[in-house]
Specification:
- The protein has four helices and six strands; from the N terminus they run H-E-H-E-E-E-E-E-H-H.
- About 5% of the residues have low confidence.
- By secondary structure, the protein is α+β, with helices and mostly antiparallel strands.
- Helix 2 packs across helix 4.
- Strands 1, 2, 3, 4, 5 and 6 form a six-stranded antiparallel sheet that branches.
Length: about 180
């Protein structure tokens, strides 16, 4: 009887310890509440006012508009909020995103979300395929079966979105930003 009890305790103890490290199946940061890809942070900027940060954000958006095909959705100078949609084209597919920037004295907050993936209609899919490009949330790719091609595509998307956020950070810090055309 003691042997069975000891075996049962060892079995339960090993199962509990195996669940302590979660499986990281996506290079994109996923929100634990919504299970959607979201990049967000509060970034401190020393010795700057809200107006200076807002003008830097507007200048940055005007610089990246041709590169990322950005379209401004909302600008609220009185609250210090700016929101726009951008698109990164890569071959025949493209990735869209929404970026919201909110400024305060000495810091700014960004949130990059609503990431989408647009694929062209593939003529080899058969007679029932869609004649128009198909746009789906990036989570449709995140929550598919893990494969090397899926991981490679998600890593490329993550790299490109982090490049957008890095250029935003350079612009908001007041450093001259050298924008690269689509990485």
């Amino acid at each position: 009887m003691k042997v069975y009890l000891t075996f049962l305790l060892l079995l339960l103890g090993s199962a509990a310890s195996a669940q302590q490290t979660p499986f990281n199946f996506s290079p994109l940061p996923l929100s634990p509440t919504t299970n959607r890809a979201v990049y967000s942070a509060v970034v401190p900027v020393t010795d700057t006012t809200k107006d200076q940060l807002f003008s830097r954000a507007q200048q940055w958006v005007s610089q990246i508009t041709p590169v990322y095909k950005a379209s401004i959705r909302q600008i609220h100078p009185e609250t210090g909020a700016l929101q726009f949609r951008g698109r990164i084209k890569q071959g025949q597919e493209s990735f869209g995103f929404q970026l919201a920037v909110s400024v305060e004295d000495g810091s700014y907050t960004y949130q990059l979300d609503n990431i989408t993936r647009t694929q062209p209609q593939n003529p080899r899919e058969g007679k029932y395929s869609s004649p128009t490009p198909q746009t789906v949330p990036i989570e449709a790719l995140v929550y598919t079966r893990p494969r090397k091609s899926r991981d490679k595509k998600l890593t490329e998307v993550d790299t490109r979105l982090r490049a957008v956020l890095a250029s935003l950070n350079l612009a908001m810090q007041g450093k001259p930003a050298r924008l690269t055309t689509q990485l």
